[in-house]
Amino acid sequence: MSSSSQASQQVPGSEFKEKLPLRDGFSTRLGVVLATLGSAVGLGNIWKFPTLTGSSGGAVFIIIYIISVLLIGIPVMVSELAIGRSARANAVDSMRTSTPNKAPWWLIGALGILSAFLIMGFYTEVAGWVFAYIFKAMSGSILSTSSEVTTAAFTSLVTNSVLSLVWQWVDLVIVGAVILFGVSKGIERVTKTLIPVLLVLLIVVAIRSLTLPGAGEGLEFLFKPDLSKVTASTLLAGVGLAFFKLSIGMGAMITYGSYFRQDQNISGTALRVAFSDMSIALLAGVAIFPAVFAYGFQPDAGPSLVFLTIPSVFASMPAGNFFMVIFFILTFIASIGAQVSLLEVLVSYVNEHLKINRKAATVYSMLGLAVFGSLAALSSSLLSNIKLFGLTFFDLFDFTSSNIFLPVGGLFICIFVGWVWGKEKFFAALTNNGSLNNQGFVSFLFFLIRFVSPVLVLLVLLNGLGVFA
Ligand code: PHE
Questions:
Q1: Ligand 1 nearest-atom number relative to CA 42
Q2: What is the pLDDT of residues 198-210, one digit of tens each?
Q3: What is the pTM of this model?
Q4: Alpha carbon of 159 to ligand 1 centroid (Å)
Q5: Most CB within 10 Å of its CB: which of 66, 149, 363, 397?
Q6: Residues 234, 177: Cα–Cα separation, whole Å
């Protein structure tokens, strides 16, 4: 394997490196994998995956999600990381400097910034709920297997305008603080220790959930597909979840790629991240659904599902309250890794492109998000009657980002890498100029990026938006 300095001189696009300000980077290769995993793993695994699986019919939805990760998610992730590492800049500038002519491909980066806003808008609210649940768990008030008790606790939180805003803003301040410590120190330190511990706890919860009387129905729901549940909107939701889960289609992986070392194996990293992330989502499913059925919750309860069910599982465990506190703390920390990467898309752009220093860029981004996000935060209280296209702001931000903007962003990334950036640069970036022995796999990925992933995304998008109906 060539040394990182040699590789950095040869990777196409790295000539732009000289023109850009010196960037902070991930210090070790393991740090890179963990930080990228830290972006992928978050509320998407523990909150969104179960929510969507419950409302979209279980096993069939899971199969669509897994296929989407394999045929669309991994190729798009690899493409984004490759562009970012070659161009070494924020998402907008990376796209601009990677474009050989004057075509406006940087708009993909701009769309990503918009997506970051939409996602952060509702994500910060859910993270705020998780944070609030740490304290609710500490007080012991939610440790109950009764759906009335857990439902009342959740409802009293989300219907309270003041609390909703406060928790969201507390979350924003914490994420902003993590970002201010800088890329390698802030992000790596937070994610390095966390994920294995969360995994262990999820396994404990899964074992408890599986051994509850009546758990079998939940397993059937998770693993026995009912093909009649495949609809245009299930397909779109499955593809959208793959994008959301892998943090792709909106520039986060371009931005993270820009911090990658030149000797990093991009496709290997993407594979490891994608499989670990998917396993954590499935594990969360196994932890939650048997309990949903055992305790008679509604699988399609929507965003509240996890907040109602998880306390019940812990209530049926020895030392349950203690473990529940740890669970919500870890989930909150996992959400920070994801939020940091979302905010990083904004901050690196404001910092490098608008030439505002990182500290100020972070503060401005947070203030913008606090204002914008309050629309989502108030969606179950003050603004619950305001609906656009029949959706509250919370649902609208969630739906448009995952089901439209991320797939559209990913579609254009595929077209760009497959047809504009081209084979030569892609191969150079993915084989580290021939020093990795992975040509066969890279050819296969390039084939997917050119012909398979964009066609699938386009068909699912048009179908989901009712074009073929
Ligand atoms: N992947 C993150 C999660 O599952 C969410 C995310 C989406 C992060 C897009 C960054 C970009 O929680």
A1: 12
A2: 889 999 999 999 9
A3: 0.93
A4: 25
A5: 397
A6: 37
